[in-house]
Amino acid sequence: MFVAKSIAADHKDLIHDVSYDFHGRRMATCSSDQSVKVWDKSDSGEWHCTASWKTHSGSVWRVTWAHPEFGQVLASCSFDRTAAVWEEIVGESNDKQRGLSHWIKRTTLVDSRTSVTDVKFAPKHMGLVLATCSADGVVRIYEAPDVMNLSQWSLQHEISCKLSCSCISWNPSSSRAHAPMIAVGSDDSNVTYTGKVQIYEYNENTRKYAKAETLMTVTDPVHDIAFAPNLGRSFHVLAIATKDVRIFKLVPLRRESSTSSGPTKFEVQLMAQFDSHNSQVWRVSWNITSTLLASSGDDGCVRLWKANYMDNWKCTGVLRGDGSPVNSSSVSAAGLNAAVPSGAQNSGMGAVSAGRKKTQLMPG
């Protein structure tokens, strides 16, 4: 049973993103009020704001946590054309500061000429690597060569996507069988440009990212994109938030020969498609086992999707933004129009609803 609970986030404008840390006990929010807030969960389950600071000179679109292996590190991106990396420092210089923490800006990434629309840390096995995307259609990948010195970041790659970029997602697979891969979504409203999702793969021979696939059936603006945790699968699962929710399965095709140096080719299958929000969908998020997917849309609801033993996807819960319950008949009706081909695996959640000055939470 999922329960919705609201907290007064005290942002002075729209909240654009909510991000949990690896353990789910810390949360960061960002807003058009140009600030980021950090929240900690108490033993009683209450969320308390433990830090708040102005981060940018424009709306802050996204905020994301690095893996805790690298410390307490956040990245944010903004309409002001920059991305920033922040580190939490626990004061120990004197008795008064002992145990108190504060966040320090370690670097500002200023390569973009337009709004930076998303920022994501790579999976930890790749090291401390950060990707940004911007409205000028460029994905930039940075690396911190010394994880003890977060003021030094080098620009490793620039990927030109030709379309305005709105969101990115790293493939979390740590298998040596899968090269590093990043999916890019575009919110370009020009319908003549098909294929609003592009997938890029790292090539060890050329030491560059090359386009491996374009999802040509995605023709509407894409607001969010999320690879499912891999858990040893031979294929990849990708959720997309556009005018509806879509789940794609990407099956790598065998290479013609072991010496082939081009990017992997994929068989792309549409596993499920839901239009139950009846509105634009803004966020999709998986749980850690990829058995549950959460989506939030302009209908003010967070919807939870799960595949049953027959691999048919159904809605297992609907949470309204005000915390009020939704009757079971509307939940079951929402599960219609979600057929999955046999052979597809379970997939899954972990989302929140942003876009108001309050934040809606769902226990994981």
TrEMBL record:
GO-annotated cellular components: kinetochore; lysosomal membrane; nuclear pore outer ring; Seh1-associated complex
InterPro entries registered for this protein in UniProt: Sec13/Seh1_fam (IPR037363), WD40/YVTN_repeat-like_dom_sf (IPR015943), WD40_PAC1 (IPR020472), WD40_repeat_dom_sf (IPR036322), WD40_rpt (IPR001680)
Residues in WD repeats: 8-40, 274-306
Keyword Cell membrane: no
Cellular localisation: Chromosome, Centromere, Kinetochore; Lysosome membrane; Nucleus, Nuclear pore complex
Superkingdom of the source species: Eukaryota
Family stated for the protein in its record: Belongs to the WD repeat SEC13 family.
Identification of the protein by name: Nucleoporin SEH1
Species of origin: Silurus meridionalis
